[in-house]
């Protein structure tokens, strides 16, 4: 009965034994060694080919593991052949062979297990600890075996390893280390790859573990355990091969899918780019292009890809493209050039090629990628621009570029032939007012009419041009003296006296002309232009509608003005600027009614610099915007501080310049200053001169109305010194008129001034405006003004401009009007 039960098991073991190569030692297992060696070799070959892939670190580790496994099988096959040939006896194999075979197989198992641990877990430290620990344990077993072997060989040279405790050490050690990776992977990962790896590693574990009872029981289970162990080992190697090859196939499939996805994405992206894009290989065969390229040359993508330029372009042009491509492949870098392109329908265009070389996987030039930019419209525009390059678009005169070129040429000729050149820099007076009043179209019409009127004044050798804006330049070549330049300038001024007819209007314009002479006023075009410009501004300052020669004194003043501008910019940053306040008194109440904030500048080297010097400079340079904003905010802040200290509310008077009024952010600046300081609008008075108000009266009325709507007081400063129109004045929403000090200084003796002051007072009374008289310095002036019912005054008779602290002392004493003798204290 027992024999019949054992027969099926024996049959199964025989089948396993035949598959694995036998039940015994080396001489019986040659088939197993061969099959395992083939699989280890195949795995090594595949790992070697993938060492540069993205997961190359894992592959390099697997190369070592597969190499150790292959080495073990090759050694086993070699020993089997040596034994078969009779070179080595079977008993001699047990002298040194088992420890080496154990070490190689154990190290192969450990390295492979570590590689898959790192790959599946993604944690480097754990697999490193496992690898170092397992290999160290193998090394210890190997050294312990040879320590034992050395002792026994010394005692008995005929002894051999056999089934000793050293074999147990190897098997138990390997079993313990090989059970760790499957347990970790089962607990922390999932998926088909995990399952197959765990199965393969479990087979390796069982291959080592089942040797332990075999060693303990000797020959009893030789026929049972040996075939199973060999079968498990071979199955593990083949299963590992299947895992690795399937994983490689899966990765290749994913890579191909990702490549197709990226290729489709790339094609979609480049198709979305409106600029034509193409790429070729080293032989000039198109590898791809976008829709814009196909549309531009008039061929379908199928006709382009896989073909060369000779298939899609005329031979002559294709030769140009091909030679350029070869040069780029030789030289590398980037290639940019213009060339003509002919489409399939014969349409011609000019394009700008941008090409560069891309590298293949080996780092060698793989081909060319390029873009085409159609510059046909630009080329046509350049032709138009070249035609227009030297003429002004509005007047048809020479433009700035031609003027400078002609001036350079005339100066060179004058140096050779020793004669003079005159440069007239002309500017239309108050051209901005015409533009603002009638519009830019009328302004352009005026420029054209001025140009037509100037043309007859020039000789064939002279150059007349528009320099920009309303500025005209006349270059007088080959003149003998300044008198010739004067004659031309006077002729031009005379011509301008005739009115221009602009849209049913007659407009009279003046010309300010600055004259610079070569060689007296400069030898270079830039110098002459600068000096003529300075002379033109001198003509404007001298009254406009006149001509003025450049002088060295003018240059000296310009340098001094520039130095002052630099110092003023520094002063704004170094707190050299400060405010003083001059009281205004109401004789009716006998108290201080307000203060006027006045800006002062104490230069560290030059001392106090008069406002009459630096305020106009600030207006010309644009610094007045920053200065005005600071003055307004500082004055409002000081008035608010006095109120917070419990002093009676005073009217804070702040001067505005014409530049500030013309800027679009005046209302915003005032609102911001009041909001930040907390001053009430009714405690602020803004002062503007009547000449500033009249510059753009219509626009100014709107701005002043907005300020008045906020509750801010408005005053006309220096009244009577400028040109004003009563018809406009009655529409300005002002509260107060300040009589200029020039009319007060000679009162009451000067009858003309007295009459003017009486007229101003009467006009103000009629318009129901309040009055303030500036510059009151004597008792007689005070009595005259009080007699004529002007009761609000300011001036040195009452108090000089003083710091805020001095104002506070006056406020602390009640701010009474102390009528006294003239004092500057």
What is the count of distinct domains? 4
The CATH architecture term of the largest domain is: Up-down Bundle
How many helix segments? 31
Instruction: Output the radius of gyration.
Output: 52 Å
Domain GGDEF: 419-552
Domain EAL: 561-815
Pfam families: EAL, GGDEF, PAS_4
Organism: Desulfuromonas versatilis
Task: Please name the defining characteristics of this protein.
single chain; 825 residues; alpha/beta; Rhopdopsin 7-helix transmembrane proteins; Beta-Lactamase; Alpha-Beta Plaits; 4 domains; 9-stranded mixed beta sheet; 31 helices; elongated; disordered N terminus; disordered C terminus; PAS-like_dom_sf; Diguanylate cyclase/phosphodiesterase with PAS/PAC sensor(S); PAS-assoc_C
């Amino acid at each position: 009965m027992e024999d019949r039960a054992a027969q099926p098991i024996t049959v199964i073991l025989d089948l396993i034994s035949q598959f694995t190569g036998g039940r015994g030692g080396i001489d019986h297992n040659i088939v197993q060694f061969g099959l395992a060696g083939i699989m280890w070799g195949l795995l090594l070959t595949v790992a070697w080919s993938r060492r540069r892939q993205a997961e190359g670190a894992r592959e390099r580790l697997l190369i070592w593991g597969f190499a150790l496994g292959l080495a073990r099988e090759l050694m086993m096959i070699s020993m089997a052949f040596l034994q078969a040939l009779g070179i080595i006896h079977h008993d001699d194999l047990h002298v040194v062979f088992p420890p080496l075979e154990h070490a190689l197989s154990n190290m192969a198992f450990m390295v492979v297990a570590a590689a898959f641990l790192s790959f599946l877990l993604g944690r480097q430290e754990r697999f490193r600890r496992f690898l170092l620990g397992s290999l160290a344990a193998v090394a210890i077993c190997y050294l312990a075996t040879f320590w034992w072997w050395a002792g026994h060989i010394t005692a008995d040279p005929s002894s051999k390893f056999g089934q000793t405790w050293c074999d147990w050490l190897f098997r138990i050690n390997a079993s313990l280390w090989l059970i760790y990776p499957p347990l970790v992977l089962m607990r922390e990962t999932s998926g088909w790859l995990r399952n197959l790896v765990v199965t393969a590693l479990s087979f390796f574990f069982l291959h080592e573990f089942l040797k332990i009872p075999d060693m303990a029981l000797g020959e009893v289970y030789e026929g049972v355990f040996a075939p199973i162990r060999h079968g498990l080992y071979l199955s593990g190697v083949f299963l590992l091969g299947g895992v690795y090859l399937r994983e490689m196939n899966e990765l290749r499939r994913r890579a191909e899918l990702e490549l197709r996805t990226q290729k489709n994405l790339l094609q979609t992206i480049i198709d979305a780019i409106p600029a034509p894009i193409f790429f070729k290989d080293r032989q000039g065969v198109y590898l791809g292009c976008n829709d814009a390229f196909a549309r531009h040359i008039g061929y379908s993508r199928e006709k382009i890809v896989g073909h060369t330029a000779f298939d899609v372009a005329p031979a002559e042009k294709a030769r140009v493209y091909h030679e350029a491509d070869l040069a780029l492949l030789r030289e590398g870098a980037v290639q940019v050039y213009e060339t003509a392109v002919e489409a399939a329908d014969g349409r011609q265009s000019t394009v700008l090629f941008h090409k560069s070389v891309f590298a293949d996987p080996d780092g060698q030039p793989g081909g060319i990628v390029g873009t085409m930019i159609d510059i046909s419209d630009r080329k046509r525009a350049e032709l138009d621009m070249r035609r227009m390059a030297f003429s002004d678009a509005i007047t048809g005169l020479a433009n700035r570029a031609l003027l400078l070129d002609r001036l350079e040429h005339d100066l060179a000729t004058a140096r050779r032939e020793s004669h003079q050149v005159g440069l007239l820099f002309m500017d239309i007076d108050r051209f901005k007012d015409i533009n603002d009043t009638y519009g830019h179209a009328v302004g352009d019409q005026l420029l054209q009419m001025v140009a037509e009127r100037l043309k007859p004044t020039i000789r064939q050798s002279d150059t007349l041009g528009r320099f920009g804006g309303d500025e005209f330049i006349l270059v007088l070549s080959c003149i003998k003296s300044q008198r010739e330049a004067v004659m031309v300038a006077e002729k031009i001024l005379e011509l301008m006296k005739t009115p221009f007819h602009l849209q049913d209007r007659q407009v009279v314009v003046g010309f300010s002309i600055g004259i610079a002479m070569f060689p007296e006023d400069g030898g270079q075009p830039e110098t002459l232009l600068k000096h003529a410009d300075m002379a033109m501004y001198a003509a404007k300052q001298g009254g406009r509608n006149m001509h003025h020669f450049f002088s060295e004194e003018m240059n000296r003043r310009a340098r001094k003005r520039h130095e002052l501008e630099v110092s003023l910019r520094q002063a704004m940053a170094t707190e050299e600027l400060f405010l003083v306040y001059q009281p205004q008194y109401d004789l009716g109440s006998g108290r201080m009614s307000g203060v006027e904030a006045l800006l002062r500048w104490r230069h560290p080297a030059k001392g106090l610099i008069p406002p009459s010097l630096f305020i106009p400079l600030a207006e010309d340079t644009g610094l007045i915007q920053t200065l005005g904003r600071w003055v307004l905010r500082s004055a409002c802040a000081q008035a608010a501080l006095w109120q917070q200290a419990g002093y009676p509310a005073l009217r804070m008077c702040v001067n505005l310049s014409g530049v500030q009024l013309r800027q679009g952010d005046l209302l915003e600046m005032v609102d911001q200053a009041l909001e930040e300081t907390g001053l009430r609008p009714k405690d602020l008075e803004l002062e503007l001169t009547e000449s500033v108000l009249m510059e753009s009266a219509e626009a100014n009325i709107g701005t002043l109305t907005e300020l008045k709507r906020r509750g801010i007081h408005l005053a006309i400063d220096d009244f009577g010194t400028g040109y004003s129109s009563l018809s406009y004045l009655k529409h300005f929403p002002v509260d107060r008129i300040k009589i200029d000090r020039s009319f007060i200084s000679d009162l009451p003796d000067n009858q003309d001034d007295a009459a003017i002051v009486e007229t101003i007072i009467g006009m103000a009374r009629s318009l129901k405006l309040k009055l303030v008289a500036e510059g009151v310095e004597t008792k007689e002036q005070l009595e005259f003004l009080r007699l004529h019912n002007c009761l609000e005054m300011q001036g040195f008779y009452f108090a000089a401009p003083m710091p805020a602290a001095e104002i506070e002392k006056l406020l602390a004493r009640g701010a009474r009007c102390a009528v006294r003798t003239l004092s500057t204290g």
